[in-house]
Amino acid sequence: MQHQVETVHYDVGDVRLSGLLARPAAGPGRGTVLALHGGGSRAAYWHRDNAREASLLALGAALGWTVLAIDRPGYGASAGMPRDRQNLDHQVGVVFGLIDALPAHLGDDHGGGVFLAAHSMGALLALRMGASDDGRALLGIAAGGVPLRYSAEKSAAMAAVPTDRWDMVPPMRGPGTGSATFFGPPGSFDPALLTREGRIVAPVPMAEFIDARDNPETIPGVLGKVRVPVHWTIAEFENSNQAGPEALAEAGRLLVQAPRVELHTQPGVGHNMSLHHAARAYHLRILAFAEECREARANFT
């Protein structure tokens, strides 16, 4: 069954957020998956028109979930917001404000709570949300592509960005910034994505970039405060961040207060997991974990 995906807008205080919304065909919804894209992307990262089989929104709606992919603060309708409001801590407040408003917007489709599906820089936001006092109300978090540490090449490229000149990050060049950094081997994704054109790509707000650049120093303290279940995924062909079994084990050690941690390596994908042919398999795992979190919240709390 084809599920309609609609463009939506929500006002959270003085911030206007845009996004994509898919509702279950037969309500009420089991819950709401709020999807947070990575840096330099938009909500369409989770729903490409020409690859509906890879869409988290279409799949989630088919399984009875409401799925809302937003353009994070500083992207889409809120692009161009002042630099002092672009950082991840400010984004935490805006997104929680949206979550507070969702029952009124979605009605019965809101379902049994909110689960965060988040990628890369969006996962840094989701984990900060999970580490806050308000985060205890979340069903759980699926975090993919989290940079505990960057590759040496990407770290050098990020350090070379002059952060005092612009409000948005200029294109980075050289090792650690090309397509091989973000995609798996040929055959694992649609090569048309390498044009980096269309609805998916957007400039990165500078304050967010600084948070991401400094993340290897700040994230241990964040992860130690997360108190909801976490599904943590690293791509088989991850070249943007340091990866492998050691990185998975480190994430597990740092998430000391999370009541459940599931560590996973996703075969067949590079850093941008949802833009690969294996995206459906990855999204099925996310939704299975969300379902388990929903059942645990409903029956054991």
Automatic annotation (TrEMBL):
Keyword Transport in record: no
Occurrences of domain AB hydrolase-1 (ranges): 33-278
Pfam family, one: Abhydrolase_6
Any GO molecular function: hydrolase activity
InterPro entries (UniProt xref): AB_hydrolase_1 (IPR000073), AB_hydrolase_fold (IPR029058)
Keyword hit for Transcription: no
Keywords noted in UniProt: Hydrolase
Protein name per UniProt: Alpha/beta hydrolase
